Amino acid sequence: MNILILGSGGREHAFAWKLNQSPKTNQLFIAPGNAGTALLGENVPLALNEFDEIANFVRANQIDMILVGPEAPLVDGIVDYFREATEFSKLKIIGPAKYGARLEGSKEFAKEFMMRNQVPTARFKSFTASTLTEGQSFLENLKPPYVLKADGLAGGKGVLILNDLEEAKLELKTMLVDAKFGAASSNVVIEEYLDGIEMSVFVLTDGANYQILPEAKDYKRIGEGDTGLNTGGMGAVSPVPFMNDQLEQRIKNKIVEPSVRGLKDEGIDYKGFLFIGLMIVDNEPFVIEYNVRMGDPETEVVMPRIKSDMVDHLIACADGTLDTSVVEFEQNAATTVMLVAEGYPEAYEKGKEMTGFDHLGDCIAFHAGTKMENGKILTNGGRILSISALGENFKDALAKSYRNADRIKYEGKYYRKDIGFDLMEY
Ligand code: AMP
Ligand code: GLY
Fold first, then answer.
1. Which of 232, 158, 227 lies closest to 383, judged by CA?
2. Which residue has the least CA distance to atom 8 on ligand 1?
3. 295 in ligand 2 pocket by Cβ < 6 Å?
4. Measured at the alpha carbon of residue 231, what is the angle toward residues 226 and 237, in degrees to the nearest 5?
5. φ, ψ dihedrals at 236, nearest 5°
6. Is there an atom of ligand 1 within 6 Å of 159 CB?
């Protein structure tokens, strides 16, 4: 197989690392990729919203499979674009078509899908500028904290959790009337606050059958103790140590099964990853959100734990035979710690020279925001390097991630020293 991975982060490096181990992989291309993916395949400078250019590349390089990393091209309809052209009828493209991508692209669409398919989630109601007053009265009838969600994609910033009623009413107006998150907040979902512990499950589905991948917990805030601004993710742990048989069964029966059955019953063209963000309240799972792709940095802990051949699974996914392609994973643990740029997630500088790669040991350093220039590795993003490690348990893996995080040097290096802090009791 000639495979093209779309994206440039740690997730895509982890995919490239895993796919590169398969005997079925012939040529591997990553667009646009980073300094890490360049060691595993060929980086190609394609823009992810230029579908015609991607098609030209696919044609010229006899690409058999495209694995779409981030959500934006999916929400923009890259799968539909290739499905519509008969010349690409044999191309395997991993990701949902545009309609299914709305599970991530629209919170309201996702909530309505959950309601139709009896997937447990927080109670909600959605509002627009013309129903602002109703929205404000709805808030008055809820207990704090108040959860306000911009309907559309807002780069992970579109969710506000507020304790004060007046502030919540004002923010609702700012979102709906003053377009706080642009068009993304022209529709706002207000939902009940769920008090529990978060984790994520990852499902590979062909729209009818599915395989469950290792679960994970990520750390989204920039500051220790889960404080400060939201980021793309500062670290992750897999498995979650609070998992038990009962919870596992509930997640499968109450969340995964009805979600996949919903895709099938509603005839949704979905051959790809479904990332289900959960809140566990008293050992009961509720869906907080769907994403139509893998997580980053969750992929950096999920891929290292999978034993079986990911290319086989992706082929089965595209062919609709995932029931016979059993994902096997190790009973070990994986952790990752994200090294970021000073200032991230606000303004930060790029182009800092990185050193210390030769001193790494007993870890996998997945590049997130790096580039190679004149034989040097330079920082090229806010999230820079995701240091993953395996261990018998997560504490053991974390010690390795941290030992290696220390060995990488660049100006302005920052990382959270407390990944897994809330799991120590387990
Ligand atoms: P989302 O973008 O939907 O993942 O939301 C961002 C974050 O807000 C989540 O990771 C949760 O920490 C939090 N959150 C979202 N919805 C709720 C809810 N209904 N109750 C409590 N926390 C929530
Ligand atoms: N780490 C969260 C995400 O990928 O959305």
1. 232
2. 159
3. yes
4. 60
5. -155, 160
6. yes
Same domain, 31 and 79: yes
Query: Which ligand sits nearest to residue 111's alpha carbon?
Result: 1
Tokens of 406: 């220390």
Residue 186 lies in a domain: yes
122 touches ligand 1 (CB under 6 Å):
yes
Cα 171 off chain centre by:
27
Give yes or no for residue 231 CB within 6 A of ligand 2: no
288 lines ligand 1 (CB under 6 A): yes
44's CB contacts (< 8 A; 6+ apart) are 4, 29, 30, 31, 32, 33, 57
C-beta 9 within 6 A of ligand 2: no
Q: What is the pLDDT of residue 132?
A: 97
- Site to substitute for ligand 2 among 275, 293, 336, most atoms within 8 A of C-beta: 275
Kindly report, residue by residue over 152-190, the tens digit of the pLDDT: 998 778 999 999 999 999 999 999 999 999 999 999 999
**Ligand 1 pocket, 39 CB below 6 A?**
no
Ligand 1 contact via 284 beta carbon (within 6 Å): no
Which ligand ends up closest to the CA of 231? 2
Compute the C-alpha angle 306/404/334, nearest 5°: 25
Q: Please, where are the H alpha helices in 177-251?
A: 245-250
Question: In this structure, which residue's CA is closest to atom 2 in ligand 2?
Answer: 295
CA-nearest residue, atom 4 of ligand 2: 295
Q: Is 21 inside a domain boundary? A: yes
pLDDT given for residue 426 in this prediction: 85
- Predicted pLDDT at 290: 98
| Residue 45 placed within a domain | yes
CATH number at residue 128: 3.30.1490.20
Q: Is residue 135 included in any domain, yes or no?
A: yes
Do 84 and 153 lie in one domain? The reply is no
> Is there a contact between 193 and 145 (Cβ–Cβ < 8 Å)?
yes
For the question of whether the overall pTM of this predicted structure is more than 0.70, the answer is yes
Q: How far is the CA of 291 from the centre of ligand 2 (A)?
A: 8
Q: Which domain holds residue 131?
A: 123-191
Q: If the chain, 426 residues long, is cut into consecutive pieces of 10 residues, what is the mean pLDDT of each piece?
A: 98 98 98 98 98 98 98 97 97 98 96 98 96 96 95 88 96 96 95 96 98 98 95 97 97 98 98 98 97 98 98 98 96 97 97 98 97 96 98 97 98 98 92
Whether residue 203 contacts residue 273, with contact meaning beta carbons closer than 8 Å, is answered with: yes
